[in-house]
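Shipment paperwork, digital attachment
Item: protein structure file
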Amino acid sequence: MNRVKQIISSPDDIRVYYHGQSVWIDEYDEANRTATVHMRGGRTHERHVVSVEELMEE
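Attachment content:
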């Protein structure tokens, strides 16, 4: 969860993957340990709530 917070607040372009797909992290829910993401290069309105444990950093 701490790394998700760091990635969101970072000015750098940090590659994060969800099941092999490159995603942007839009926001997170610390209490539920989830993050709202959308696919890079995809439609930004297609957001998914996923477990932070399923996110992998490049």
